C-alpha cells in the first residue's frame, strides 16, 4: 500500500471518527435542549412567535437561525422540535436555511477573512433567499410533504380502556389523591411513555411533585434517545460519505475545475460543496486558500454556501423527515442561492 493511499485512509478514518463523535454529541445535546424547551414552553407560544400569518414570524425565524451556532446537520433536532410544535411551516423552513448560513461563527469568520463589505453582501443574499424560499414553499403547500410520524400523527394509545391519552410533551399530574385504606401504596398511572409510579397513600404534595419532575426529565431523555436511534443509520451513512470525500478528493482538484477562467466554475463549486461536508470553522479558511490558488470569488461563495448550507448527511437526515418533493425543493434553493451569490460576487467583486 502506497504512502499516499495510507494517508488518505487515515484522513478518512480520522474524519469519520471526528464527525461521528461531534455530530452524535451535538445531536443528543440539541435534541435534549429542544425537549426541555418544548416541555416548559407551550406549543401555542411557539406557534405565535413563528407564525406564517405575518412577516414577523419569518423575521423571528431568521433571527433564531442567526443566533444558533448550528451546522447543517445539527440544525435537524431543532427543526424537528419546531415541526412538532406546529410552528408555521414557512418560518420553520426559513430557520432551516438561515441556521447554518448566518450563525455567529460563520459571520465572524467571514469578517475576519473577507472583510465587512463581502460579509454584509453575503448575509443580505442568504437572508433574502431564505425568507423568500420559506414564504414560497409555504404558499405552494410543501407542508404536505412532511412525514406524518414527524408530527406525531400516529393513532395514540390510551392508558387503558377508553381513557384519553395525554400528549407526551405535556406533564401528567394525578387529578385526585389516590386512596386505599387496605394498602400502604397506591399506583397512580401516568399516560405516555412514563410507567406507573407508586405514590404514598397520603399523596404528599412534595413527594408527588418530585415524582412528576423525575418523570418529566426521564421522559425528555427517552424522547431524545428515541429520536437519535431513528436517525442514527442515516447519520452514519452521511458521515461515511462526507469522510470519504474529505480523505480522497484533494483541494487542488477542486481549484482546477473552479478556476476563474472556467465559465462553469460557479455551478461546479456549488455542486461540489454539498458532498464536501465541512464545518463553518473549516470551510471559510479552506475557501480563502482555494482563492489564493486561483479559484474565482464567485466560485468561492458558491462553495461556501453549498457546503455550509447543505450536506449529504443533512439531506439523508431530511429524507427521514420529508418526502422527495421537499428534498428536491431544499436542494434547489441551496443551489440557486449558491449560484446567485456566485454570479453577483463575480459581477461586483
UniProtKB/TrEMBL annotation:
Predominant subcellular localization, coarse grouping: membrane
Record's bilayer topology term: Multi-pass membrane protein
GO cellular component, one term: plasma membrane
Pfam families: ArsP_1
Keywords: Cell membrane, Membrane, Transmembrane, Transmembrane helix
Signal peptide: none
Location(s) in or outside the cell: Cell membrane
Membrane-spanning parts: 12-37, 57-83, 231-249, 264-284, 296-318, 324-345
Similarity remark: Belongs to the UPF0718 family.
Name of protein: Permease
Amino acid at each position: 500500500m502506497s504512502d499516499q493511499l495510507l494517508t488518505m485512509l487515515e484522513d478518512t478514518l480520522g474524519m469519520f471518527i471526528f464527525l461521528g463523535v461531534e455530530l452524535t454529541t451535538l445531536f443528543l445535546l440539541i435534541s435534549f435542549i429542544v425537549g426541555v424547551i418544548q416541555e416548559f414552553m407551550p406549543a401555542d407560544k411557539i406557534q405565535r412567535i413563528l407564525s406564517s400569518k405575518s412577516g414577523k414570524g419569518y423575521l423571528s425565524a431568521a433571527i433564531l437561525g442567526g443566533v444558533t451556532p448550528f451546522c447543517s446537520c445539527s440544525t435537524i433536532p431543532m427543526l424537528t422540535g419546531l415541526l412538532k410544535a406546529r410552528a408555521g411551516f414557512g418560518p420553520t423552513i426559513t430557520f432551516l436555511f438561515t441556521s447554518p448560513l448566518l450563525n455567529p461563527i460563520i459571520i465572524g469568520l467571514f469578517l475576519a477573512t473577507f472583510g465587512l463589505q463581502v460579509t454584509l453582501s453575503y448575509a443580505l443574499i442568504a437572508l433574502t433567499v431564505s425568507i423568500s424560499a420559506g414564504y414560497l414553499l409555504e404558499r405552494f403547500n410543501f407542508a404536505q410533504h412532511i412525514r406524518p410520524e414527524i408530527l406525531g400523527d400516529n393513532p395514540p394509545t390510551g392508558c387503558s380502556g377508553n381513557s384519553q391519552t395525554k400528549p407526551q410533551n405535556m406533564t401528567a399530574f394525578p387529578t385526585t389523591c389516590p386512596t386505599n385504606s387496605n394498602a400502604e401504596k397506591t399506583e397512580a398511572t401516568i399516560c405516555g411513555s412514563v410507567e406507573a409510579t407508586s405514590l404514598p397513600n397520603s399523596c404528599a404534595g412534595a413527594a408527588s411533585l418530585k415524582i412528576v419532575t423525575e418523570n418529566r426529565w426521564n421522559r425528555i431523555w427517552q424522547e431524545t434517545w428515541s429520536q437519535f436511534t431513528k436517525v442514527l443509520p442515516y447519520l452514519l451513512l452521511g458521515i461515511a460519505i462526507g469522510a470519504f470525500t474529505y480523505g480522497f478528493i484533494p483541494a487542488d482538484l477542486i481549484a482546477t475545475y473552479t478556476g476563474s477562467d472556467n465559465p462553469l466554475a460557479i455551478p461546479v463549486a456549488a455542486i461540489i460543496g454539498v458532498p464536501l461536508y465541512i464545518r463553518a470553522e473549516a470551510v471559510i479558511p479552506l475557501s480563502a486558500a482555494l482563492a489564493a490558488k486561483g479559484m474565482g470569488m464567485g466560485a468561492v461563495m458558491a462553495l461556501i454556501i453549498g457546503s455550509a448550507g447543505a450536506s449529504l448527511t443533512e439531506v439523508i437526515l431530511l429524507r427521514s423527515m420529508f418526502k422527495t418533493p421537499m428534498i428536491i425543493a431544499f436542494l434547489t434553493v441551496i443551489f440557486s442561492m449558491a449560484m446567485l451569490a456566485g454570479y453577483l460576487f463575480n459581477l461586483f467583486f
